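As described in the Methods, two query proteins were run sequentially through the folding procedure within a single session, without resetting any intermediate state between them. The first query and its resulting structure tokens are shown here.
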Amino acid sequence: MASQEAVVRAQAVKARYERELMRKRNVVGVGIGFRERAGRTTEEVCIVVSVREKVPLDQLALQDVIPNVLDGVQVDVKATGTFRAL
């Protein structure tokens, strides 16, 4: 079970960086969730950055690289495709 403190901290960091992350090529959303490792969901609260598709690091411009950690909060990048309103 995630601590309330971890959730509040992740929310504050998300609010601080969301606009900057959304300007990166391929990013379609930013949220808070649980980190995934080796296909399994952990109990670690993180910032989830949704991208259309995962791109190898060497194919990204420096300004489009998503950091692994923001202000001590882990970042998990998930390929979700493009979001569409129904």
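Immediately afterward, the second query was submitted; its sequence and tokens are:
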Amino acid sequence: MRKIAMLAAFAAITGATAVHAQGTPAEHPRGPGRGGQGMMDSVLLKGITLTDGQKTQLGELRQAERAKMQAAGGAQQGRGDFQAIRDAREKGDTATANRLMAEQRTKMEARRDEQFAAIRGILTAEQQKQFDANVAEMKQHRMERAPGRGHKPSGV
């Protein structure tokens, strides 16, 4: 009897978790097919209520970013960059590996700053204040998580 009660409790918890995780795209922080981008948006837009027009503009920004990434070689280009870093490490060339990692980090930070500026451009002045605070908080959190890695906060 005890096994049945435990099994029933487990099934109820598992079912509730699955239903909660399947929320509607607007409720789910990642949204359908957006990977980590939806998660970053939820952090950047915390405390900001977008109008329908702003939501449309944000969607258009994301589509344009995906198209730009695909045109530039997408994930294949990124894999090549990281493969060069791995190759340098395997050869024991830490100077080259460190240089390539710094270059990759600079590219990623520049792309992220472009994205932040584009999102900021669709916000009202009041929303921009909250957005700027969210960006600062996110960057501070990133610095705390990766001390001594040479991460320097980049401007908005």
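Residues 14-34 have pLDDT under 50 and may be disordered. We note this only descriptively and draw no conclusion about the first query from it.
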